[in-house]
Amino acid sequence: MRYAETGYNLEIDLSKGNIQKVETDPELTELYLGGLGTNAKILWDRVGPEVEPFSPDNLLIFSAGLLCGTPAPGANRTIVSTISPQTNLMAFSMMGGFFAPELKYAGYDKIILRGKSPDLVYLWINNDKVEIRDASHLRGKGAVETAELIKEELGEPKAHVAAIGLAGENRVYFASIEQGRSSASRLGIGAVMGDKGVKAIAVRGTKDLNIAQPAEMMKLCNEVLDYINFREENLIPGVMPILQGLGSPQEMKHVDEKWHTENFMWGNSRTRIRDFWNDEIEEKWKETQESVRTRLISCYNCPLKCGAIISVPGISTYMMKCFSKLTYTMAAYSDLDFGFKIAQRATEYGVDGFSTPQVMAFALELLEAGILTEKDFPGMPEDPEGRFYWLLDKIVRREGIGDVLANGTHWAAEQIGNGAEAFAHNNIKKHEQLPLKLSMLNPIYFLMYATGEKINITQIEGQFPQAPFATMEEKEAFVKDWIQVPDDKFKEYFLKWEFRGEYSMPFYPGVQACCEIVDWMEMMHYIDDSLGMCAGLSSFPLKPPYHIHNYPKVISAANGMDLDKDGLTKIAKRNRTLIRAFNVRRGMSRADEKPPENHWKKRFPELETQLLDEYYKFKGWNNQGIPTKESLHELNLAYVSEDLEQRGIIENEQS
Amino acid sequence: MSKVKKKVKVIKVDLDKCNGCRACELACSAFHANPKYSSINPARSRIRMVIDPLNDEYVPIRAAEYTRSECDGRNAYVISGKEYSECSFCGASCPARDLFKEPDSGLPLRCDMCEDDPEQKEPLCVQWCLAKALIYEEYEEEVEEQVKLGDMETGLKSLVDKYGFQKLVDAITRMSQKG
Asked: Do A211 and B128 touch (CB under 8 A)?
């Protein structure tokens, strides 16, 4: 019997309309866990470097993580993996909500889509009954609307639906997949779903998921719940409100936006407005938020309330989480009311809440600079809000200039030319980043930005505080019950860290310490993404309930595999290295690992080179960021090593 | 029948606090798995969430009595513009729908407040509701003594209703003779 996982994948060939239920090899679980790890293995084996994002040979994998559907609180994430049209590298965007556990209860760990459907279809997975159904009547419908229509026509209010909107249908490079209160937004996976002719996947499951060591599992989960309660009652002092507790930043709960509005950039990641926040704005935004927010809501089996139901009078109700309430607001230099209104339309269209506003602000900058002209924007209104709605509509329909912008700032700039490239200034690996421009180089963040392959900074950062604490008393209080550290040396790094002087950035923490800190942060993310655990209860916040010490026990109790801290560390490293190898095979190199030129005002080229050199070494990669033969063999990835050797990417004698 | 003192167990629901996470369903199905906690399946849970986010509808319903026939009440209620039937929030395991039936056998499910030895401090759904939408209360009441049906008796009763007493006895006799 299989535990925590179902042991079956659903393989669907959309070109042929063929559906197969395929048993999986339990050994792969021991090597890669599940979720992102096993997705990466499948992509490595089946999607060669020559496969283009919109080729029928590209796969689109929806995977539940290993712990999804078990009692582990917060294990509910669906990891969607494919080749990104924007970066041409592996995309591994993910979403919370209810889809992954439902898939497990239907009897599957993954849905693997290949080929392309000749007509627009949706998939209906109801336990053992799996159908490819006509979706021509859903063409052009909003993502939320589509989910409602499908549940209604199936007569299954308990089904969970992941759907694309118009943006995905039209292969907008930053199209998302929306699912209830959640979305998998980054890297244009919605465009791949649209390219495959799949409007939506509906799933309903009523089968048992087995637990290997039932009593032990419940005991561990109760400890996690107790710790969540403890942390909710013991917020971390000295950091901003959204970082004090657990979960994704509590943007739906808090109305105080002083930090974001004054530290994040407005427009096309361009202008910092210090002293923006005042009593009048606070009062007005509070009223806006509280009048549209109907209820704070959660994902499956999680007590944190990171999402909200948003009902703006006169427009359809939708759900929101995290920071998208401000991305449109700040890109358009507008207010919160506008943010909530346009986000409704953007959610129905199914677009990424970070890239989309930046693309629109980028277009308006090009107009202002004379690189684009009024002729490119026929009929565009004068007011900033009206312009954003107009641009959004053009982009998702790929009409006129919208067709160019729909490829994201990197590709649009290349196509527009005439100096437009300089305006696509906030990208890493061709992908839009958080609108942040800072003064002093932060060596930890430099490494995270440069080397991350999940593309967004928030997907690597985590449990190590973002800045030193002011007094030794505060620092000591923080490290006192810091049980999450893999090693006590991290406490020492933090205790010594200061705002000024010898022990301040950019030369402290030292290069070696930076490597260790970044490696720890990244390891936790790679574990979460294989387990389907929400980063909000593990890799992302300070002092989370899951960490490297209790995770092996939770995994053992759920799945039955024999695992300790070293074993789990090795699996995380294996998964991380496999993804690096996959992207290297697609041409990624050291030259791609560059934060935007203007990300920090004060740069230190020598230190940056040294950081990258040492980090690569630390990871077992060569000076070009390519995993060495030796490290691949150590990680049971000899097959990867052989492939890279045959292609001449790594040399035979290299060790 | 004589009067006896009985501990009455109540789960109050504060709908405003529900965050829709369905941990109640998960915990219930774990507790009632055999062996205990060995499997998870919300479809086996004796508490189910009725959720419609777009209408801000988050209502946990506990499995109540098994009933052999559909009720004739078909009152419709309109709440905030959406129409509900009397069925919408009913906890009965009845022939009209799949709710509160074992997914494979179809036998009725009923909330037993997680009776356990040693006793649980609270039913599992309440323990796992960190949002505190489910609130457990106990009080004593004098009631007439009555026989309470366990899971198996409720299941047998439904089979009796379906096939008749004699057929069921015949089947059990046949099965026991085959060993």
From this structure: no
> How does residue A655 score in pLDDT terms, banded at 50, 70 and 90?
very low
Do A346 and A285 belong to one domain? Answer: yes
Whether A144 and B26 lie within 8 Å, measured CB to CB: no
The secondary element (H helix, E strand) that includes residue A198 is: strand A198-204
Write the pLDDT tens digit of every residue in A16-37. 999 999 999 999 999 999 999 9
Six-digit token pair at A30?
């021991």
Would you say residue A650 has pLDDT above 70? Answer: yes
Residues 97-136, chain B, touching A (beta carbon < 8 A): 103, 127-128, 130-131
DSSP-derived letter for residue A146 is H
CB A53 within 8 A of CB A173: no
Residue A653 has pLDDT above 60, yes or no: no
Domain boundary (A406, A432, A458) is at A432
Mean pLDDT value of segment B131-136 = 97
Assign residue A559 the CATH number of its domain. Answer: 1.10.599.10
Chain A positions with Cβ closer than 8 Å to B = 69-71, 73, 98, 105, 144, 148, 157, 180-181, 205-211, 214-215, 217-218, 222, 225, 228-229, 294-303, 305, 309, 311, 316-319
Contacts with B128 from chain A: Cβ below 8 Å: 225
Q: Does A209 sit within 8 Å of B130, measured CB to CB?
A: no
The per-residue DSSP string of B11-60 comes to EEE-GGG-----HHHHHHHHHTSSSTTSEE-GGG-SEEEEEEGGGTEEEE
